[in-house]
């Protein structure tokens, strides 16, 4: 049995070396997801974060990148080159500057890219284009994600703090060692980088108000290179207001959340700064205050901070010292602080922990990379292979599957009324291992055979591959692992290679079928060609040579359509999705399929695909087939009668259609004969499917309502 699926190779690009909120989010993700991730981190600025990453075993490289547009563009070109040379599965851009550098470079290199969006900075200028170019947007809240225009943004808040906060006595002892005396007066804490829009100045001004005259302020956090001189400005402000003796700056403190229990309140007063920054996306400091049972003073304008503060503290106006002073006046009473603390603990208990949040993020990253379940082992499954007259093709597939079975899996060998010795050969295999079971099929078609296999399965997930396919060593692990995700899809679409050999089969391999390698490196050209030609693997387009599906989804879809003599897999996949089940693509679930030896057999196969796709009324299949046929009919007319621009457009379209298979042939140094056959086999396939589509459409019109899902 194969073990867990290989961990996800993830390249993280993060812009700053300081330990701010987004950096702490990243560290928590790496801590909780260590078993699932193989991480390389590219830092665009050096700082304490590098040591924290190295301590977690991450490979770290500092690539200094300035704030200007030229520096960002230069780094983006450099990252594109680096990514082309890498073996990474997915890129995670941690923050807006990281996305500005990483998203375009990853797109050019063809590597799937996700953007972790933490706040509202640069929303007007960058959020929508970066969101559109990203394969995935992970946002800390709905408000943060809204600016990207991505309705499918994954909303994952920062996790609740891990560990147990220190006791109030231990916390006061800790702060005393930092030079801060607690207990003599109520104390407000602010944990923040020293930048103007964080509102530390508002808190200092609040201390000068009569209502807050008993309070002192402790500011915990480092200076920020973008706001040089901010600490000097704040100290001068405190002196001018005669509150300097009640304001302490203690710099950066490790694991500060553990020690917040020593304070009487924690403030998050971030405000919009009138340019591109300000407002909190989802404040980790606010979560730490709630975990410590300390009241939260939160500024209006940051939705998640407002929500927490309204229940477990006080909501204040972000630039109104009087509002903050009134909140502190209310919170001076121990009974009020106790009620806020109880509400804080109720909120934090319901908040997801690190494992849950990391599971969502890593699961989404793995899915975007085409590797759902990376780093996981899935549940026991039923494997199903249907055979009819397959003597000579049995041993390879059965032996390959048997090597991958777990102790609690089962393997159904379905003989669909073979006329040769297939049943006897399968019986000999079944006698060798109790996990193998031979069943007799209905002898109708593959749809009916598959339906019977699903009905006989004793496991909730059924994995299928055809006879004539050779599964790769990690094929079964790649199809079972997605079902170990926290929110698994019900349909897992595998992939296939086709064999080559003679020039005709080589040309067919290059021209007619999608490429697994291209699916892993989806450059702009590969993406465009896949859309235009249909030669691509897609989570929403099923090919039964390699797939897994829950029995529940099979039931919801009504099973495989037994009225279909071909295209049953694609139609079944559409029915599963129409029933509301989700699907994912698993690029590790690879089989090698033996294609037909002769071009005539290939043409007849595609004619059947076209016919039965039309008989099933599958509009996506019919649309593609007729669009390509229309191109063959119109192109000669347009070349003969069109103007120069029209002829150029037709030639360009033809070149684009042939571009991917020709480029494959050139990269693989195929023989000239193979290259010359590429246009011919493409034409044979397209015209055969078009003829079959017309034939199937006529048959459907002649016999409406023939669709049936019985017979299994």
UniProtKB/TrEMBL annotation:
Glycosyltransferase as a keyword of this entry, yes or no, is yes
Q: Where is the Glycosyl transferase family domain?
A: 181-346
**InterPro entries, per database record:** Glyco_trans_1, Glyco_trans_2-like, Glyco_trans_4-like_N, Nucleotide-diphossugar_trans
Where do the Glycosyltransferase subfamily 4-like N-terminal domain residues begin and end?
Answer: 20-146
Keywords on record: Glycosyltransferase, Transferase
| Superkingdom of the source species | Bacteria
- Please name the Pfam families in this protein's record: Glyco_transf_4 (PF13439), Glycos_transf_1 (PF00534), Glycos_transf_2 (PF00535)
Q: Among its keywords, does the record have Cytoplasm?
A: no
**What residues does the Glycosyltransferase 2-like domain cover?**
383-505
For molecular function, the Gene Ontology terms on record are: glycosyltransferase activity
State the name under which the record lists this protein.
Glycosyltransferase
Q: Which organism is it from?
A: Nocardioides donggukensis
């Amino acid at each position: 049995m194969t073990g867990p699926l290989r961990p996800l190779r993830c390249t993280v690009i993060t812009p700053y070396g300081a330990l701010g909120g987004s950096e702490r989010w990243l560290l928590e993700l790496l801590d909780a997801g260590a078993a699932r991730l193989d991480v390389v981190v590219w830092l665009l600025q050096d700082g304490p974060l590098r040591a924290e990453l190295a301590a977690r075993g991450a490979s770290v490289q500092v690539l200094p990148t300035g704030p200007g547009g030229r520096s960002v563009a230069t780094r983006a070109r450099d990252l594109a080159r680096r990514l082309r040379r890498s073996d990474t599965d997915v890129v995670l851009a941690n923050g807006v500057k990281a996305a500005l550098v990483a998203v375009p470079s990853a797109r050019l290199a063809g590597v799937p890219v996700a953007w972790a969006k933490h706040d509202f900075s640069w929303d007007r200028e960058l959020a929508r284009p970066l969101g559109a170019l990203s394969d995935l947007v992970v946002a800390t809240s709905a408000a943060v994600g809204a600016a990207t225009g991505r309705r499918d943004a994954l909303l994952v808040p920062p996790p609740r703090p891990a560990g147990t906060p220190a006791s109030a006595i231990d916390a006061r002892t800790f702060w005393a060692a930092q030079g801060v005396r607690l207990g003599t007066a109520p104390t407000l804490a602010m944990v923040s980088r020293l930048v103007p829009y964080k509102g530390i100045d508002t808190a200092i001004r609040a201390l000068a108000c009569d209502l807050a005259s008993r309070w002192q302020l402790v500011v915990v956090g480092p200076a920020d290179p973008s706001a040089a001189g901010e600490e000097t400005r704040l100290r001068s402000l405190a002196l001018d207001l005669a509150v300097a003796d009640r304001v302490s700056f203690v710099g950066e403190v490790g694991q500060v959340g553990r020690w917040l229990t020593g304070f009487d309140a924690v403030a998050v007063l971030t405000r919009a700064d009138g340019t591109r920054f300000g407002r909190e996306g989802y404040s980790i400091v606010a979560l730490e205050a709630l975990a410590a049972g300390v009241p939260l003073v939160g500024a209006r304008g940051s939705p998640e901070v407002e929500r927490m503060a309204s229940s477990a503290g006080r909501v204040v106006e972000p630039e109104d010292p009087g509002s903050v002073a009134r909140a502190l006046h209310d919170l001076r009473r121990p009974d009020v602080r106790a009620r806020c603390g109880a509400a804080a603990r109720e909120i934090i208990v319901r908040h997801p922990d690190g494992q849950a949040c990391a599971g969502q993020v890593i699961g989404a990253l793995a899915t975007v990379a085409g590797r759902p379940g990376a780093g996981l082992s899935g549940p026991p499954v039923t494997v199903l292979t249907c055979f009819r007259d397959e003597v000579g093709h049995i041993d390879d597939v059965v032996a390959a599957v048997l090597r991958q079975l777990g102790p609690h899996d089962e393997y159904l060998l379905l003989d669909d009324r073979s006329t040769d010795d297939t049943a006897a050969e399968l019986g000999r295999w079944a006698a060798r291992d109790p996990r193998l079971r031979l069943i007799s099929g209905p002898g109708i078609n593959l749809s009916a055979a598959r339906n019977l296999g699903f009905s006989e399965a004793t496991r909730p997930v059924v994995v299928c591959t055809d006879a004539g396919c050779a599964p790769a060593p990690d094929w079964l692990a790649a199809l079972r692992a997605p079902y170990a995700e926290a929110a698994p899809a019900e349909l897992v679409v595998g992939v296939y290679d086709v064999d080559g050999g003679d020039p005709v089969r080589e040309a067919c391999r290059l021209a007619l079928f999608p490429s697994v390698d291209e699916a892993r490196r989806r450059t702009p050209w590969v993406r465009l060609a896949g859309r235009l030609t249909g030669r691509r693997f897609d989570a929403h387009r099923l090919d039964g040579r390699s797939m897994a599906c829950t029995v529940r989804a099979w039931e919801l879809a009504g099973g495989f359509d037994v009225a279909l003599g071909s295209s049953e897999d694609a139609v079944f996949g559409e029915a599963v999705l129409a029933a509301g089940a989700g699907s994912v693509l698993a690029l590790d679930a690879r089989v090698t399929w033996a294609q037909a030896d002769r071009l005539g057999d290939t043409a007849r196969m595609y004619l059947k695909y076209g016919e039965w796709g039309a008989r099933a009324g599958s509009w996506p299949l019919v649309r593609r087939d007729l669009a390509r046929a229309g191109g063959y009919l119109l192109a000669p007319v347009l070349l003969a009668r069109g103007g120069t621009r029209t002829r150029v457009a037709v030639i360009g379209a033809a070149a684009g259609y042939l571009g991917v298979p020709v480029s494959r042939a050139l990269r693989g140094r195929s023989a000239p004969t193979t290259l010359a056959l590429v246009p011919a086999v493409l034409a044979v396939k397209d015209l055969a499917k078009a003829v079959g589509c017309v034939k199937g459409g006529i048959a459907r019109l002649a016999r409406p309502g023939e669709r049936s899902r019985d017979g299994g």
